[in-house]
Specification:
Blueprint: H1 19-65, E1 73-74, E2 81-82, E3 85-86, E4 88-92, E5 97-103, E6 121-127, E7 130-137, H2 140-146, H3 148-157, H4 159-164
Antiparallel strand pairs: 1-4, 2-3, 4-5, 5-6, 6-7
Length: about 160
């Protein structure tokens, strides 16, 4: 009978860890860090944008209330969310208008590859004839101009408004 002797060499298992596994762990940690940064920024941006909208509708409502016109009311519902950023809206019930504040995604934000809203925004106003789209508005006068027909109709129905001015 012949006996064969041989030796097999295999790389050692380093307590279940390898440099490849370490790189996976580091990548997962980095992605979670980026997400944490994005979520914190987006949550704060949502709060700030909501306050900006409140201030904007307060100015608009001062103008509208001076003639007894319906006022915008802040909606309790937040808009569609994206990584914890939520747009806000205010509604004018009759006629039905929605005023939105929409965050601008900062595509050049270096600390996270995830959708991050770092403060830029725009206002949009939807009309009764096109409630699913909105036109960009920048000032109180822009909003009042879009409401012009309804405001004039309201004034014509309420002659005492003209007399008190």
């Amino acid at each position: 009978m012949k006996t064969y002797k041989f030796k097999v060499e295999v790389p050692e298992v380093n307590n279940g860890k390898s440099s490849l596994m370490d790189s996976f762990i580091n990548e997962a940690r980095d992605e979670q860090r980026q997400l944490d940064i994005t979520h914190k920024i987006n949550k704060k941006t949502t709060e700030v944008h909501r306050q900006i909208l409140i201030d904007f509708i307060t100015e608009i409502n001062e103008e509208l209330s001076s003639i007894g016109f319906n006022e915008f009311k802040l909606s309790d519902e937040l808009g569609h969310g994206n990584n914890y950023y939520y747009g806000s809206q205010a509604r004018l019930q009759v006629p039905f208008y929605n005023l939105y504040i929409v965050g601008e995604n900062d595509r050049k934000f270096e600390d996270s590859k995830y959708t991050t809203f770092t403060g830029e925004y725009r206002f949009g106003l939807s009309t009764p004839s096109a409630p699913s789209t909105y036109e960009i508005v920048k000032t109180v006068d822009d909003v009042l101009t879009m409401l012009k027909d309804e405001i004039i109709e309201h004034i014509k129905k309420n002659r005492e408004i003209v007399e008190s001015y």
